[in-house]
Amino acid sequence: MNKTGFRFALIGLAAFFLCGCAAVDTATQVATEAAVITGTITREQGDSIRTGTAAVVRSLEDFTPEQEYFIGRSVGASILTQYQILDDSKVNSYVNLMGQTLARTSDMPELFAGYSFLVLDSDDINAFATPGGHVFITRGLLRCARTEDALAAVLAHEIGHIQLRHGMQAIQKARMTEALTILAQEGAKSLGGRELAQLTQVFGGTISDITNTMVNKGYSRTYEYQADKAAINILRRAGYSPGALSDMLNIMAKRIKPGGSDFAKTHPSPLNRIAELKKDGQPLAAGQIPGDRTTRFTQAVGHLL
After folding, report:
1. I need a labelling partner for 98 at 20 to 30 A (CA). Which of 108, 111, 119, 257 fits?
2. Rounded to an integer, what distance in angstroms lies between the CA atom of residue 256 and that of residue 129?
3. Which residues span the domain enclosing 12?
4. What is the pLDDT of residues 211-250, one digit of tens each?
5. Are 83 and 194 in the same domain?
6. Of 206, 233, 255, which one is at a domain's C-terminal end?
7. Total H helices, total E strands in the chain
8. CA pair distance 126, 139, nearest whole angstrom
9. Does residue 128 sit in helix, strand or coil?
10. CA-to-CA distance for 5 and 48, rounded, in angstroms?
């Protein structure tokens, strides 16, 4: 492929960012056909460009619920190489029951293998949600909760990430960047079968993408704000106070250390998140918590607080 042909391949892939997967094929078809008609590239080169772009797009779109589950399970296994599960069956059972209840009121109540919720034995203030429904919350973050509603707010936020497929979107962006890099490296050559296979294979390295995003980089501010909004809806549907999210964020604002390696590194500041919720007119007033809910919370996790 000559340099002009390479530019068209790059345009076809870059269209993903501007238009989304559904428009990539159309954009590539138009660009390459115009180049063929004007003699800029040959018909064979145009076919090669279309085939390469289609391979990338298919890799982005063709994740099934089953594949997402196994991707998420692998990400969870990676997280568990860095953290130990809290050895407390009472706490884990309680958190899992709460999570399952909240998940049923979400926009994605059913997953390939259902949701799972575990507490990690760490003083870090953090939580993670993988594709396919695996949610982890650290003991340090659980200790920030003063009520069952506050704990529900944390779990609802993580469920929000899952229903919005933020983990899978992190894969797509990272892998597209790598695909463009390969195209740049092969730009002066003929993009043959080996290179096309390499482009498709690029999208197989999904585990490190999600793990790195969740543990080291964090989601974008937009994604975090979206998960907060989803959490408000989940809390309301499940009968919890939406204002509990604001209460929890205020406590976290006092506990986290700026520049730290946990929540402070991977999330917008709690106060910014509260401001964003207020800007959208979200209900943040604390509700009255029933006595039996308080008793249940204290009996399940009081010994950790």
Report:
1. 257
2. 20
3. 3-63+168-206
4. 666 565 666 778 888 999 999 999 999 999 999 998 888 8
5. no
6. 206
7. 15, 3
8. 9
9. strand
10. 9
